[in-house]
Amino acid sequence: MMHIRSKLSALALVAALPLPAQALNLFACEPEWASLAGVLAPEAKISSATHVYQDPHYIEARPSLIARLRRADLAVCSGAALEAGWLPALQQRAANPDVQPGQQGMLYVAQWVETIDKMESVSFGVGHVHPEGNPHLHLDPERMRQAGAVLSQRLAQLDPERRDAYKVDYLRWSMQWEQKLADWKKRAEPLRGRKLVVQHTTFDYLWRWLGMDVVADLEPKPGVPPTPGHLATLVKQVEQERPLAIVHSWYQDPQSANWLSERTGVPVLSLPSTTAPDEGVVTPADLFEHLLQQLLELERAG
Ligand SMILES: [Zn+2]
Question: Any signal peptide, and if so, which residues (predicted)?
Answer without folding.
Answer: 1-23
